[in-house]
């Protein structure tokens, strides 16, 4: 009996110690858990960091994922350093000052668990292997169970990297959702080029995969919904002597909105054309090449084209399409070695991601309301 009494007392002491430990941890967190925008390690917006690919039990609703890959570019390299630059430029974003006045929510403190998932360790030595790596990584993460019951799968926002990473994301999304995905593509360039359009007497199968052909490849693999996808911000030159590139693009089912169209349509008109084309129910991959912006605004990119949109115009459009059913997104082609001392391009990219997060979370709140209404309706029917 004496031993039993001792054991009980020991357990009580252990519980008291544990309670004191918890109180101590809470006090330490209160005193030292806060970070100023200029302090702490560089995660996106000071989000909690988890190496998601090595922690299979780590659940999240939205994961920020770096994809430092740029060996599929046709002009200036350097986008492999994009994820680091975007994270650094996001330092002024914090959960304690993240309320978005246009949406009426703070995406960082709403229902969604948003974390920085680190980077995919993509090889720079073989594009074929890199594509396999990226596809496997996306598939692994998208197959996780989300924290929120309003989501079917977690959502990944990728920090590129060159634009070819979108092919890996679309392959994984098609596999996980078991259907093709609509693409909303903001870019100066089509990126639906037939691989043969690149003049190369030393062409290879691996060379077909590049940052200008990935949507052509995705379309031919049946990954993209034909007839519900959009290019926005186009202003590139075409190959050859005619409109054959546009004819190829037409066969892949994209609506084209040029950079010049904003002069007549205004941002609201661009939004209207996008929403009429895609709607609010189709699953959408939102892909933003930073070169959709004018190089005067965003010089740090690999294939700059004069005459692009301003940041304000792009933000107005992004805010207008918040009703889309976005299942994945990226911001790509940030090449910090060409950026200015003020990190203009990386700052723009980090703000774009904030707008993406806001819209995804706001759509999630709307879906949660609809789920609640359906449950209540079913409950009443049963009564």
Automatic annotation (TrEMBL):
Reaction equations catalysed: agmatine + H2O = urea + putrescine
Highest taxon listed in the record's lineage: Eukaryota
GO terms for biological process, alphabetical: putrescine biosynthetic process from arginine, via agmatine; urea metabolic process
UniProt keyword terms in alphabetical order: Hydrolase, Manganese, Metal-binding
InterPro entries: Ureohydrolase (IPR006035), Ureohydrolase_dom_sf (IPR023696), Ureohydrolase_Mn_BS (IPR020855)
EC class of the enzyme, as a word: hydrolase
Molecular function as annotated in GO: agmatinase activity; metal ion binding
Pfam families named among the record's database cross-references: Arginase
Keyword Transferase tagged: no
Residues noted as binding Mn(2+) in the record, renumbered to the chain: 163, 187, 189, 191, 289, 291
Cofactor note: Binds 2 manganese ions per subunit.
Alphabetical list of CDD domains matching this protein: Agmatinase_PAH
Protein EC: 3.5.3.11
Required cofactor names: Mn(2+)
Similarity comment: family membership: Belongs to the arginase family. Agmatinase subfamily.
Protein name: agmatinase
Species the sequence originates in: Sclerotinia sclerotiorum (strain ATCC 18683 / 1980 / Ss-1) (White mold)
Organism phylogeny: Eukaryota, Fungi, Dikarya, Ascomycota, Pezizomycotina
